[in-house]
Amino acid sequence: MTGSGAQKSTTVRDDRRRADRRRAARRRKAAARLALVRARIAVLQAVSPRRAARFALDLWCTPPDGAGRRRDDRAARGTLSTVTTGSGARVVVETWAPVAGDATHRDAPPSPDARTADGGAAGRDARSEAGVVYLAHGWGGWRGQLGAFVEPLRAAGYRVVAFDAPSHGDSGPGRLGPRRSTMPELADALAAVVSEHGAATAVVAHSLGTATTVLAVRDGLPVERLVLVAAITDVLGEVDGFADLLRLSQPTRDLLRGMLSDLAGRPLGELDVRETVRTHPVPPALVLHDRADKEVPYPVGAALAAAWPEGELLTTEGLGHHRLLRDPEVVRAVVDYVTPVREAAPAERDLARRTA
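and the corresponding C-alpha cells:
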C-alpha cells in the first residue's frame, strides 16, 4: 500500500471510531434520561396513578427531535402559505407548480394567501396539471424530509403540496401547546390542507404520517392513491410498547389509554390502520418498507400490503427507516405508481440494495 493509501485508510478508521464514540455517547445519554423518567414515574405511581398517567401523556404527545428528522432534501423552495385547522392550529404549507409536460392535466384552484419563500405575494397560476400530490411527514418530522419527491413529481406534471403538522417544523403549536401534538391533529392538518389546495391525486406519507393519512381517509378524505413508506399500523401496540418502556403499572396504563381516547375524541381502536382496512373502503396503495428498518420492523409493512385491497409491496434492503425517502430508485417507483399511465406492476416487487 502506498503512503497516501495507508494515510487514507487510517483516516477512515479514525472517522469510524469517532462516529462509534458519538453513537455510544448518545446511547448512554438516552439510557440516563430513561432511568430518570422511570424513577419519576415510579414515585408518581406510588402517590397517584393519575398524575403518573398525565406525565406519561405529556411524554407521549411530545414529538422527538434529531438531525435525521430535520433533514432538508428540497432542491428548491416552493411557494409558502398557511392553513388554519378546525381546532385553530396554523399549518405552514409549501407548494410547487408542475413543470410543463404532456400529462393529462387538470386546472389548479386559486390560493389567494400564497407567498413565495422570500415573503412576496405569489397567487397560484392557473396552469394545467396532472393532479395534486401531497407529502405527509411522520412524528417529529417536517416537510423538507420528503423533498426528494418534489422535482420528479413536478416533472411528471403534478403540483406538489407539503406541509408541517401542528407543533412540527415551521407550523404553530397544536391544541396542547408548543412541542406537543396528537395523531388526530396530524390527520386534521392533512384534511385542512387538501380542502384548501385541491383534491388529492395521491398522498405520499412516511412513518406515523401513514397512520394519520389512513385516519383522514377513514374520516372521509378522498384520495385516488396512497404511498405508505415505513408504515406504522398498530397504534395500540405502540402505546403498549411505550407503557412497557416506562414500566407503567396497570392502573396507570388504563388511565393513559383513557386520556388518549379523550384527546382523540374516539375509541383508540379507530386509530388502528388494520381496523380501518378491514372496515372501511380505502384507495389502492403502494407500501414501501425496508428489511433493515429498526423503527418499524419489515413484517409490519409486508402484512399491511398483504391485507390491503389493491395493495402492492415494494421491498428495499439497507435503507432503514429514513434513507428510503431520498433513494433515487424509491423516488422513481413512487412517481411511476402515482402516474396514471404506467406499466402494470406485480403485486410484490423488490429493489436490490447493497447495505452501507
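(Above: one complete record from the training split.) The domain at 73-235+268-351 is CATH 3.40.50.1820 (Rossmann fold).
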